[in-house]
Amino acid sequence: MMRDVLRGLREVWPMLMAYAPIAALWGAVAAGQGFSPLESVLVSAVVYSGAAQFVAVDLVKAGTPLSLLVFTIATVGLRHVLMSASVSRHIAHFPKLKASILMFWLTDEAWALLERRALTERLTPAYFVGAAVPLWVTWGSFTAVGAVVGNRLGDGAAIGLDFAFAALFIAVLAGFWKGSRTGAILLTSALVACVAKLFIPGAWYILAGGVAGMAVAVMIAEREKAT
Predict the structure, then answer these.
(1) Do residues 21 and 81 share a domain?
(2) For residues 165 and 76, what is the distance between their CA atoms, to the nearest angstrom?
(3) Residues 189 and 105 in one domain
(4) Over the range 79-89, which residues count as b (16 or more CB within 10 Å of their CB) and which as e?
(5) Residue 119 is part of which domain span?
């Protein structure tokens, strides 16, 4: 058990370095909007969604009604529906309660690690913990640092910190590359997401890109079965 936890930790640790500055930046932004360090950490611990948290803090500042705030955050998090459905294939052998609890720690980066590991061997709850929980701990811990340090962190976007998550996720996805088949899926997903972003308000482009990518993957798989 501990061996799998350590394996997960060994594979996730480079991502922790990308999580830390973004979490600190959010903590600083939250402190600037009047959140106490404790409130900032609690939001990171419970909501645990970088994109949703940055969106939410702006909406709170603007005095957005609670119903709209919840709806917006849920829309931003729609991709978790797709990721959960994807990972659920590989953890069907987990006890139901344990699987449900572990899903709380499923993020984009944890999803990528779990999917990549599932390509070669069976997932275990211990590996899930080792690969996912350290991200949550880092996110909460460095939120506290940012909330205490405050505006002294400066503008993270000016030095590219706002792109850290995207760059990290692209690097992880590279491990899934299987030639033209993977390229077709990623290209379709990216194009549909970009078009949806231009014409559909909100974060629906995330769901649109994911569904388009899955549709192409299914069509490719069906064609391979037929030949």
Answers:
(1) yes
(2) 15
(3) no
(4) bbebbeebbee
(5) 2-176
Residue in 12, 219, 207, 28 with CA at minimum distance from that of residue 116: 12
| Pair 129, 206 in one domain | no
CB atoms closer than 10 angstroms to residue 66: 9
Q: What's the Rg (C-alpha) of the chain?
A: 18
> Is 163 in the same domain as 189?
no
Does residue 87 share a domain with residue 34?
A: yes
Q: Which amino acid is at 55?
A: V
Query: What distance in Å separates the CA atoms of residue 75 and residue 195, rounded to the nearest whole number?
Result: 17
d(CA 2, CA 200): 46
Whether residues 167 and 214 share a domain: the answer is no
Which pLDDT score is estimated for 49? 86
| Helix, coil or strand: residue 145 | helix
**In terms of domains, do 122 and 193 share one?**
no
Considering its fold, how many domains does the chain have in total?
Answer: 2
Structure tokens at 133: 């929980």
pTM: 0.73
Report the C-alpha gap between 136 and 12 in whole angstroms.
11
- DSSP, res 227: -
SS3 readout for 61-106: HCCCCHHHHHHHHHHHCCHHHHHHHHHHCCCCCCCHHHHHHHHHHC
End-to-end CA gap in the chain: 42
Count other C-beta atoms under 10 Å from residue 25's C-beta. 23
pLDDT along the chain (227 residues), means of 10: 92 88 86 88 91 78 77 76 90 95 93 91 96 96 90 57 61 68 84 89 74 84 76
